[in-house]
Amino acid sequence: MNSPALDKEIALRIGLAARELPETDIPRLLRVLDDAVGLPPDKKQLAGLTVKQLKSAADGELADLDSGSIRAALACLKGDIPVFEEPLPEVVPYQDGEMPNSIRVACASNRGDLLDGHFGSCRRFLIYQVGAAEQRLIDIREIGSVPKGEDKNLYRVAQIADCQILFVASIGGTPAAKVIRAGIHPVKKPQAGSAAIEIAELGAVIGRSAPPWLAKIMGQPPEQRVRFVPSTLESTA
């Protein structure tokens, strides 16, 4: 006997919720929901879910995840987050060499221009060319299915191999190490704000006195690298 079909809106909610959870795909979340409320879940069951239930279901499958991510996923499951697609920002044409003394930055994103993606589950990377005087969104790279047998994290690293910095809502230790080995500097931005605003702030930092780690990325000689008082721009490395 076939299982009942999953309601389209609920399927979209589950997809959004999975993207709020670090290193979590839809099958993993479905295992948790199966134990918590059974499959397929209906809107009433999802409305009654709690953070405690999600963390304890399936022998604590999600127990190690931070409560903020769990709450964000729960909001998606309950329908508090709209399931329609937010419009993507407009890409601006760019040719190599047009912006001297600039760097390339990848922003992990799930919705619109938000910097709200976890490295292992984000839907796309927004690619910015960033200088002190100008910042451009030069590409949007959708993350497709990982080829069979290929490492998921290395597949994602390859999508941003031409970038020097990665802005991301969260990233685990193992994928972070792979990002760093590729010569990309990961920076956590857990507040899930506008990528464009974060990029503008980075441009302002470049225009003032870049912290040593950023000055190194930009190729400044050691004598030009200044001491830096930490602010909102903090490296994970």
TrEMBL record:
Keywords: Nitrogen fixation. It holds the Pfam family Nitro_FeMo-Co. Coiled coil: none annotated. Residues 6-81 form the Dinitrogenase iron-molybdenum cofactor N-terminal domain. It comes from the Bacteria. Residues 112-196 form the Dinitrogenase iron-molybdenum cofactor biosynthesis domain. Belongs to the NifX/NifY family. This is Dinitrogenase iron-molybdenum cofactor biosynthesis protein.
